[in-house]
Amino acid sequence: MPKDPDTTPTAGPRHVAIIMDGNGRWAQARGRPRLFGHHAGARRVREVVEACPRLGIKYLTIFAFSTENWKRTQVEVAGLMSLFRRYITKETKTLKENGIRVRFIGDRVRLDAKLTELMDTLEHETEQNDLVHLTVALNYGGRDEVARATKRLARDVAKGVLRPEDVDEETLPKYLDTRVLPDPDLVIRTSGEARISNFLLWQSAYSEYEFSDTLWPDFTAAELERLCRSYGARERRFGAVPA
Ligand code: IPE
Ligand code: IPE
Ligand code: MG
Fold this sequence. Notes:
By secondary structure, the chain is an alpha/beta fold. The protein has a single domain (15-141, 184-231), classed as 3-Layer(aba) Sandwich (Undecaprenyl pyrophosphate synthetase). It has helices at residues 23-28, 34-55, 74-97, 113-125, 142-159, 221-232, and strands spanning 15-19, 59-66, 100-105, 132-140, 186-189, 208-211. It has a six-stranded parallel sheet with strand order 3-4-2-1-5-6, sandwiched between helices. The radius of gyration is 18 Å and the shape is globular. It starts with 14 loop residues before the first strand and ends in an 11-residue tail after the last helix. The relative contact order is 0.20. Residues 19-21, 63-66, 69, 193, 195, 197 line the site of one 3-methylbut-3-enyl trihydrogen diphosphate.
């Protein structure tokens, strides 16, 4: 049986996931290269993370790089990878001191060794923290995640650790990258696009969505607060009839 969802109205979402989109267009509007927008976008993350405790957000998951983003030019991809390395190096101390526990989801295999080393260190350095759980999706794709999870599940069946007849809705999530996280209550996408782009496919089955026209480098804590309030006014039904 699936977990009994908590349908009691809450003031705000406990787990917010954000598709941080629009960096390229923000730069383009200023006649600057796309990477200029990515740097401006990265600088927005701190304010958003710091706003979480006061908004009651315990889990924040942000989409930084998708499995499809490798299709971009080599200059943009290399620039983004270098930005991730620099960002982690620069922010580790603050994240640690501010009680933020950082995790990464996505396939690390295609990422370079220097970057994965920094990711491992940041996860390790912040593993005692519990104020906000920040998850960064890096080389993440929902379909890729389900495929990797299925591969691990199939291996357990082959080993005799798991019986096919015992596989149910509760089984697959235990193999997903997000296995220790609750499902997102609210998924936000910036930049006016109304699509999911392969983000948290399994986990967002019953998430609420908010689409904002703001380009990510212009996104603020005030807007996050407004979107959380709008979420609080909604009624989540999970397929049931309201009482
Ligand atoms: C989101 O901004 C950041 C990444 C996908 C890495 P975009 O780079 O997609 O910006 P737009 O959508 O082209 O404006
Ligand atoms: C989704 O944005 C991925 C991230 C924000 C990291 P994209 O800009 O890559 O998505 P599409 O191409 O518009 O669907
Ligand atoms: Mg985009």
